[in-house]
Amino acid sequence: MLTSFLPYGLRKIWGHQANRAPGGLSAVARCLRRSGSWGSYQLQKQLGTFPDEGRVIPWVDGLQVHLLRNSQQSQACLYFGLSDWPSMQFLRRFLRQGDLCADIGANVGTYSLLLARHAGASSVHAFECLPSNIPKLHANLSLNGFDGSGGVTVHAEALADREGLMTLNRSDGDFTTSISPPPSGSGGETDSQGEQAWVQARRLDGFSWPDRFAYIKIDVEGTEQLVLSGSEQLLRRAPPMVWSFEYLDTQQRLGSSKAALLEAFARWQYSFYLYCPATNVLVPFKPDSYAAYPARNDDNVLAIHASALDLAARRLCGLE
Q1: pLDDT tens-digit series, residues 263-302
Q2: Residue 104 burial by CB count (10 A; 0-12/13-18/19+): exposed, middle or buried?
Q3: Measured CA distances, 40 to 27, 32, 35, 43, 287 (Å)
Q4: Are residues 164 and 215 in the same domain?
Q5: Which of 68, 222, 238, 264 has its CA 20 to 30 A from that of 30?
Q6: Residue 10 is part of which domain span?
Q7: β-strand 124-127 against 153-155: which pairing, if any?
Q8: Per the structure, how many domains does the chain have?
């Protein structure tokens, strides 16, 4: 079993930007180290010696995470460090202490940890609707001193265009959870994995926010437009400076499209960029030329408000 995974795993590790940058002997050493960690982890799983409760591993920026048997996001920390290399490098360079941030679709909290480190834990709000992910999220926050009073605020609910119950959809363990409007007459059923088949949803407008958001990351598997629709008052009053979202076909699940999502952002004076960590440059994003862009290790696009473009450039250059 392990031998069948070996070529695939090594290709992923040696081809990932986070392991190869900035190149040279340090990149080779990093790839070798993480290949060894990957092989050891896979062998322990196959032999049944990996602890059920997981184990703590060092990550980046002095952070630690719980490596878990059935969490792709925590495993990516072991293999790649910054798994979403361009997006995570952007937030590390863009954010400043005190910036209001949101992690929508927090999973086990890797983005929340980075946001807390670079903006301050008390400025971060993490939204996660999958019940089994909530204790994992709290555990990672607690491990780094970001839980409890003065820490990251965790909201165990979904964000959508309405208040009330939404159907919980699971297709890949804890990794691709999504929501959709519930069918009429649905109640508190559970799905095949024992989770509640519905979750509580709120609008982002339903909160009293103390400041303008500097950064919002959305990973909600196709319901990005529901989040935007539930943020219209905020978008009129104090539009968030930067949104990071996945440019995937998952919007089709609710009858929408990637083009419709871009149009929804553009109506609120957002323009779109890809971040290049090697050159520290924001490259204008053109959907019809997406295939021509250099290979990336994430599918994220940055939507930057017209009023924040100059600030973003100054921050990335260290001028603000």
Answers
A1: 999 999 999 999 999 899 999 998 876 666 666 778 899 9
A2: buried
A3: 20, 12, 9, 5, 40
A4: yes
A5: 68
A6: 1-50
A7: parallel
A8: 2
